[in-house]
Amino acid sequence: MGARSPSKGFAAITSIKSFYPQAHITLLEMDHLSLSTVVSAATLFLSKEASLYGLINNAGIMAIPFEITKDGYEAQCTSETLPFGSATSLHRKGGVDFSDTSLPRDGNLTRYGQSKLANVLHAKTLNRLYGPASPNCESGKGEIWTAVVHPGLVATQLAVRAQTAAVWKLIIAGYSALGGMADADSGSWTSVFCAASSEMREEQSGTYFQRMAEAGWQSGMAKDMVLAAKLEEWTREEMENEGWMETT
Length: 248
Prior knowledge:
By secondary structure, the protein is mostly helical. 41% of the residues lie in helices and 5% in strands.
């Protein structure tokens, strides 16, 4: 289990074992605001396991005040884009600003939207390179199924640090009052479906899912594979330059 907070991670493991005493769970400390911990966690996993059967990248922050991490990146970009290296109406016009991905002069939701767009494009790139119809799979080198999940409005701690306009808070409050907010358990169902369900089909790899495992609407930028290729190149260069990935 990956967790940025060891205390919260161990608490979650204790809770799981109270229901499933025989569960074997190892904690991987992985703070997405410190990319060296992500690399360390991956290295530790590779030293102990030969195969990875499912990975749910569920770490995220939303619309927080502008912040630059010690690695030199905007916090939402670091937390939600680089470590993984939901198409929404929040996507920044023009897609991803590669000249300065921190977007210091833009708003909190714009930076969040850019990070979410990057999530979608990265998943589609993985599907193109390693999915069921990829040359990698066809040559017998293995395959990776990917999916992007927008679970809808879920009662979690995601928005604790969010700073958004009052109108957004009113919209969310109204939607919640009408029963639109899911609890954390049901909010995880689509992620579990994608990672573990026998009903997940190979032709669904690379799909953007919304709540309850339904294919969702995507913006034009979320389907822009030229932009996806640029993002993949930028991500790889950043990871290689900082020593987080071996140079190809």
